[in-house]
Records
---
Amino acid sequence: MTIQIDGGTTIRELVGRHPQTRKVFEQYGIDYCCGGGKCLAEAAQESQAALPDLVRDLDATLLAVAARTATVEKDWYAAPLHELIEYILQVHHAYMHEALPRVGGLVRKVLHAHGAHHGDMLRQVHDLYNALATELGIHLRKEEEVLFPYIVAAEAHREGGPAGPAACFGSVGNPIRQMEAEHESAGEVLAQIRKVTGNYALPNDACPTFRALYEELERMEEDLHQHIHLENNVLFPRAIAAESASPIGLAQIHGG
Ligand SMILES: [Fe+2]
Ligand SMILES: [Fe+2]
């Protein structure tokens, strides 16, 4: 599907339908996760970029994508919600569960080895990372144990399943707002880590573990951006739209 890009096009529309455009937004320092509702003109102004340059780079990316006919990205706007959730769990949650403790070990190791020369910076990274790991651990569990099962059960119900899911939170929009706030907080912590490390600039005396730590932190940031994008820009709006198109009776929601 092609799209006419101009200043009024929203970031959400672009990254939702063409995830390859994420790289362009990253290059311009434009937040496509939490700022997805903004149009390009607004985003360009905020990041002090020239709108024509941004549109040109986005167009070039879409042309390159169209030329790569062998690469077919799944259209998550059309796939059933349970498939999208399964994908998020298998790809992004599984990665986070594996990476959070492992990278935490690297943070401690590098602080121990390089504390003498880079102690101030590494202690900040250590504290920020610990806060991030704690926040994210709780966040992932809330999605896995409460929100995602609810969305899956509501979808099954709409498609003729036996009964609507019971929920203690009323509308699905309520936990979603909380998840979005937590995404924003996690994104801010990663941005702070990027800042205190000077955009992950390695010091001259960095050892391979130091290098591995920065590579892992950058990979985590990229994965989290894709993860949050799929939830904020695709899954959550679709779950809210599905609920308002076909509300589950309040009696069912409250288990009555
Ligand atoms: Fe998630
Ligand atoms: Fe999330």
---
Amino acid sequence: MSKITVDDKACILCGACANVCASAHVYELGSRASVAVRPEACWGCGQCVSVCPVDAIDHDDFPLDKCPPIDERHLPPIDDLVNLFRSRRSNRTFSDRDVSREVVRELVSIGRWAPTASNNQGIDWIAIDDRTRIAELSEATVRTLLRVARLARNPLVRLILHLVLGRENAQAAWRGLAGAQSLADRAQEGADPIFYRAPVLLIGHTKTRNPFSRDDAIYATYNLMLAAERHGLATCQIGLFQLPLARSRKLRRAASLPEGRVPQVCLVVGYPQYQFRRMVLRRIPDLVWNPR
Ligand SMILES: Cc1cc2nc3c(=O)[nH]c(=O)nc-3n(C[C@H](O)[C@H](O)[C@H](O)COP(=O)(O)O)c2cc1C
């Protein structure tokens, strides 16, 4: 349980800590100061420490010397932010340059500032920067996809998948699997059709397949991807590896995914061979106000 105390000499009874703690209800306003009446309910988001205008909260998970003030001057203006979003692309051509482990560590660390359901912070990462190992994983993935594609030609298997996945998902699965042979052909010609010869493969994994684990991992990944761009790096999410990895014991072993961990997201990182020079257009999403 976190130890939380409020300095009653500093507290100005503004109520901000109690108001932002709207789910856990750790705080109540006393006559002289706010009081952490339910520290056992704290889920460690740190919003109370973050919002207090007079630094009156002493929370042992968030010592003030480790929680620097937010400086608006260091936050990008909206146009810069949008330009960053619009300039990020998935890259499938990498230069031979290696990525330092220090940079990879920093990127993974940046991922943790993303939101997670109930602040569970449950994502961990495997980084593979051994090119031979990445090539082996690529070959193993192609073999797995080919095996599943062959299996899916069986009408009974098709029927079962149709029933289990539903019509649309099953059809999407056929389309994906139909491409397995062309992946194998490209691999045969010496290409890496899964990881594009990227120097680093990252696998984000969580303990359980809880309903939000994937969301948690994706938010972290997107932070990581945007930060990678600012390091001059490029990334590409690799669903084509993540899906078979989640289902194949062989691939799990090959990737050294620990027992009981679920792969939620896989991506490659490397220095791009080409720079993208233009932003492109995207479909404008429908937006319906107050539908009835
Ligand atoms: C969930 C997910 C899975 C993806 N899997 C792959 C993949 O297996 N191989 C690949 O080359 N790109 C993959 N991508 C990248 C998408 O193709 C790419 O994001 C999309 O074409 C838009 O292009 P952009 O990222 O350059 O804006 C994936 C993206 C997402 C979000």
